[in-house]
Amino acid sequence: MGEDSNLSVHTDSLDFTPCFQNSVLAWVPCIYLWAALPCYLFYLRHRHQGYIVLSRLSRLKTALGVLLWCVSWIDLFYSFHGLVHGWAPAPIFFVTPLVVGVTMLLATLLIQYERLQGVRSSGVLVIFWFLCVVCGIIPFRSKILSALAQGKISDPFRFTTFYIYFALVLSALILSCSREKPPFFSPKNIDPNPCPEAGAGFLSRLSFWWFTKLAILGYRRPLEEWDLWCLNKEDRSHVVVQRLLEERKKQQERAARVLIRFISNPTAPTWWGFLVAGLMFVCSVTQTLILHQYYHCIFVMGLRFRTGIIGVIYRKALVITNSVKRESTAGEIVNLMSVDAQRFMDVVPFINLLWSAPLQMILAVYFLWQNLGPSVLAGVALMVLLIPLNGAVAVKMRAFQVEQMKLKDSRIRLMSEILGGIKVLKLYAWEPSFLKQVEDIRQEELRLMRQAAYLHATSTFIWICTPFLVTLTTLGMYVSVDKNNVLDAEKAFVSVSLFNILKIPLNMLPQLISNLAQTSVSLKRIQHFLSQDELDSQCVERKTITPGYTVTIHNGTFTWSQNLPPTLHSLDIQVPKGALVAVVGPVGCGKSSLLSALLGEMEKLEGKVYMKGSVAYVPQQAWIQNCTLQENVLFGQALDPKRYQQALEACALLADLEVLPGGSKTEIGEKGINLSGGQRQRVSLARAVYSDADIFLLDDPLSAVDSHVAKHIFDQVIGPEGVLAGKTRVLVTHGISFLPQTDFVIVLADGQVSEVGTYAALLQRNGSFASFLHNHAPDEGKKHQEADSRTALEDKEVEEVLLTEDPLSNHTDLTVHEPVTYEVQKQFMRQLSAMSLEREGQGRPVPRRRLGAAEKVVQATEAKASHVLTQEEKVEMGTVKLSVFWDYARAVGLCAMLAICLLHGGQSAAAIGANVWLSAWTGEAVVNGQQNNTSQRLGVYAALGILQGLLVMLSAIMMAVGGVQAARLLHQALLHNKMRSPQSFFDTTPSGRILNRFSKDVYIIDEVLAPTILMLLNSFYNSISTLVVIVASTPLFAVVILPLAVLYLLVQRLYVATSRQLKRLESVSRSPIYSHFLETVTGSSVIRAYGRSQDFEAISDAKVDTNQRSCYPYIVSNRWLGVRVEFVGNCVVFFTALFAVIGRSSLSPGLVGLSVSYALQVTLALNWMIRTISDLESNIVAVERVKEYSKTETEAPWVVEGSRPPVGWPLQGEVEFRNYSVRYRPGMEPVLKDLSLQVRGGEKVGIVGRTGAGKSSMTLCLFRILEATEGDILIDGLNVADIGLHDLRSQLTIIPQDPILFSGTLRMNLDPFGNYSEEDMWRALELSHLHTFVSSQPAGLDFQCSEGGENLSVGQRQLVCLARALLRKSRILVLDEATAAIDLETDDLIQATIHTQFEPCTVLTIAHRLNTIMDYTRVLVLDKGTIAEFDSPTNLIAARGIFYGMARDAGLA
């Protein structure tokens, strides 16, 4: 190898010495394979996937390997042959064939070993064959060149073997690119749509080619859920969460690593130029491929992080104590899941910048020093000085962020309560008060946004000016330090490129640091939540117990939270096996708490609790899941038809099934919205019966149902003859009639057991219980005889599924207004109407609680469309309409938008100007080793730079102002529209779906859209200016623009169409995760009682997996795009360099430098442009969604200026219905038909009738929640349809059925507008018997009610509603009787108060208990929407009609 290096390097035709070709080039692939072997073998050992059957492909590969081995050995023998025959070849001719031969043998063996280990496509061998081919190309060329030069082939034998070798290696490379069949015995992939990644070949994986099919599909038609691949095993929730839980125990962190490549180039002969251009291309392609593989891994890791965090939070939420639950509402926990887990996913990919950024900076500074010497230090010093400034800005930004999150949380919480209690707001005409509350919070939010935006603009200014100022100071220093320092093209443009490299880590670091700061806040929040107290699973001893007993408590003292006084103290209770125990006592004495204590839901301060056997629990407020009725009853157990039928029959549900549109398969809306209160309670009871547990804890299940249904259920289920006879039953009840049949009664008072004993014993003892009984049940005996005569009819009870608490949900296709059953059972008609005493069950208030700021979208189950209550949420298809962009632009302000675009254009022009100026400067003539007028050059350069910064800052400020304005207008329109939407809208739209608009979509409009638009403009102008500069400096480049643009546009179209749809699918599949989570939090006590926690974890995991199924392709689509766009970018760089080399004679080095330094940035700009276009498309959807809900139909105006009622109206309180008909929706049967009646002022009218007769509808019509289809309602002769809704509603008073309270002070709950004095309020509280409770609270009237009034008992909430009515004191009172939740004493108090306080008023009462209306002036009996009877109670009883039958059943006639 001793020949002169000049032979190879300094000639215009490049060639390597034969020695170099035979040694180094031949050895490179061999060295690679041997080096990679140990790691690869280790990897294969640990990843056995079953062997692959010997295929043709495998045989061919092996044959090629063997042939190559033979060729090498033939070469070796030829050398030996030469040695024997006396012409000694050089040693290299022995070494190389030997090395190559052994390596080929190894490659052949490796092919077989991989086959046995189930490898379908080998990356190691693809690279090996590729290296062989690349290293073979050079001898391939030089052998031909030398033969041509000499006119003959010098060594024919080796010449031949080499070309055979080259052909074989090339074939091997081609073969190794194709993949084998799947392994034999490999676990069968049962997924319906497995991810093609697993089976993709090496090259396909490297370039993400396997994704292309989905991209093309997504381009042809919008993707649907079933197009998505199933998740890879290792990405599924249960795997990931398990791993995270294990890791969390070990608490470790690992950082990933990234590769960084630098290229610097010298100048030399022409072929050097071509070689450098080629090398730049190859290097950048390699870098692209490796970088994207790395990113793919890291993003998938981020995805797993999110999966893990959601899973861990879900599992934790199932075990937190009640005091923790009170601190953090469900909404806040959902935030941990949605926002905080997402932050992790977003920050993971950038973590390694923490070490790679400083490394890049050090290398860049080193090269700069090489280039410009010590002057670099000036620039670096400036950079370092700017870091604390950036840091300060970041800290301030973060402070704003925290503030904003708080406001956002409170706004969402308020919104969720408003949506939960919207009906009450409408009935009371309270919307303006709550509207103002929301707007006040929003005002604060926008103020913060504005400040943050100005700060952002400032940081943008610094950001743009930094690299520029740095270049300026450095070059300035360089020229001014020494007159002989000449600025030439190489120095200037290499420096500019290096400073650009420096710019990235410098910009990224502060951003990364602020991201990390946010993530650390999130991490703290998550850790805080995960370290909260858990329920003590050992609190109830489940293994041992005194023989003969199933439930015992020894000296138990329990509290709901450590900082509250104990709710139950020194309890001693023993329940024998199989006993039926009743627990009674006044409201708030701790009956429900006792059951919670048995379930281990309360914190035990002292004592012992034993409970042996499985448990079924029926809570006071039925918890119903959003799934089919059957799934609600089975609750995760297998279906046993006989047992299921028996459970339904016992719980009187068969009649309901006939009415429900899908029978057992009917989908139940969220929180059981399309069942009446009684049906919900019976479903909850059926779930317990079906569970076939040992112990039944029943929390007042009979109060929500009518008295005869209650009796049926007691007889068939709970009582001594019922299905549960022989099981241990603990029954909390207000119903006295059942007590004689219980084994013994526990009487509670103030959290202690006041008496225990059998019913008879307690009566004889003459204690508090006995006196209480004598007051309330004088005619116990008589009732029993009555009851027996009716049981025969019981099963025939026909009930209609009219929603009682939300009469409008019959909006759904749910109501069948005239069930066929009526026709079938004509003969039962009389008896039926007689016995169906009452609309069954409105009693239980729905657990409205804790809606939380989640995006809760109820997904429609597969239930056939007809049984589906909630319409499926729309997924917008195809491209986003231009009108949406136009809407947003209008909201921002058209002039502002135009100005922003122009400012950006100006900035690009200034940037090009500065660089062209620099290029001209470098080309300036050098006089005696110096350049003149340096200061002028520097001055102009500086001015152009600062101009750029100012223009960008101006546009950022304009965008900020415009963005905030758009956010204000869009939210305002949404809020005002929602507050004015009719009740029907809220009944058919899940609250989560509306909240989604207020949280997620408003957040995007607030914080995401404006920066995205700025980024888009930035990258767009960058790309354009790059092209302009390159074409201007190397006009030849114009030729390749077209093909590259076509390629780019093709990729862009495929990508945008697919990624947009994936993003939409992702957001639609995200909602069910949170819906399910909220449902779980609400029903956690039921889930734990039945021991179903693990099943629910699995359901949650499945929902997360469904969501990841669209996340994963989305991540891959970004990598797919990256590889392709960067390829276009690399081509741009390659051609720029190539044309620069071709036209080097005519170009000034300054211009070449300019065009190459621009070309190097093009990849980034192009990539960002597609990303931001698709980001903008997927985010602008938020505007579309908000707009959609800002344009829904609204109810009548609140105030009609021209026709306001006279002051003091209504004076008499006369109500008249004239030929009044109403239907819930167009096209449905009327619920009230041609109703005409007159109620005189001051009359007391009771309204009765069976379920669905239209009683509630009547009251709703009075308030115009339902609008008339024909006819009028007159109050004091004034047609209510002519006046504004608020003028009407504020003059009527209603005590609604569900007592709904809002979180805030008690004062706000009584009087949100602040119209009444302190004395009025205390007087109202006194009359509603709340005085003692409120005055015992330290805060008095400022007592804080929690969300939904959770911290008051249901009875107390009802009394608060009474106090509201007493404050209003209007002439007309509507009482939608909700006596079910109240014990008899409280009920008597309310009735007495109404009698005395509302003496002069007109009172309309929807009655449950006939005894409350027996002394009313008249009773109205409704039947199927018409008046059946209307007269005084005594006359009606004498007439022996429907009312008589009802009264007889109730024991009153």
Written description of the protein model:
This protein is of the alpha/beta class and 1453 residues long. Helix content is 59%, strand content 9%. The strands form five sheets. A six-stranded mixed β-sheet has the order 6-7-8-4-9-10, with helices on both faces. Strands 16-19-20-13-21-22 form a six-stranded mixed β-sheet. A four-stranded mixed β-sheet has the order 1-5-2-3, with helices on one face. A hairpin with a 2-residue loop joins β21 (1418-1423) and β22 (1426-1431). It is elongated and about 135 Å long. Residues 1-12, 249-269 and 778-867 have low confidence and may be disordered.
Q: State the strand order across the main sheet.
A: 6-7-8-4-9-10
What is the strand content?
5-15%
Low-confidence stretches: 1-12, 249-269, 778-867
The CA-CA distance between the termini, in Å, is 124 Å
Helical residues, percent:
55-70%
Rg is 40 Å
**What's the total count of β strands?**
22
Overall body shape: elongated
Mean pLDDT across all residues, rounded?
Answer: 79
> How many helical elements?
45
Largest sheet: 6 strands, mixed
Structural class of the secondary elements?
alpha/beta
Structural key phrases:
single chain, 1453 residues, alpha/beta, 45 helices, 22 strands
Give the SSE layout.
Layout: H1 18-45, H2 56-84, H3 92-117, H4 123-150, H5 156-177, H6 202-207, H7 212-220, H8 237-250, H9 270-317, H10 322-327, H11 330-347, H12 353-372, H13 376-420, H14 422-428, H15 431-481, H16 489-530, E1 540-541, E2 549-559, E3 568-576, E4 580-584, H17 591-599, E5 603-611, E6 615-618, H18 629-634, H19 641-650, H20 654-659, H21 677-691, E7 695-699, H22 707-718, E8 728-732, E9 744-749, E10 752-757, H23 759-765, H24 768-776, H25 780-790, H26 820-824, H27 829-835, H28 882-892, H29 894-922, H30 934-979, H31 983-988, H32 991-1033, H33 1038-1082, H34 1084-1089, H35 1093-1142, H36 1149-1190, E11 1215-1223, E12 1230-1239, E13 1244-1248, H37 1255-1262, E14 1270-1275, E15 1278-1279, H38 1285-1289, E16 1292-1295, E17 1304-1305, H39 1306-1310, H40 1318-1327, H41 1331-1336, E18 1344-1345, H42 1354-1368, E19 1372-1376, H43 1384-1397, E20 1402-1406, E21 1418-1423, E22 1426-1431, H44 1433-1439, H45 1442-1449
Parallel strand pairs: 1-5, 4-8, 4-9, 6-7, 7-8, 13-20, 13-21, 16-19, 19-20
Antiparallel strand pairs: 2-3, 2-5, 9-10, 11-12, 11-14, 14-15, 17-18, 21-22
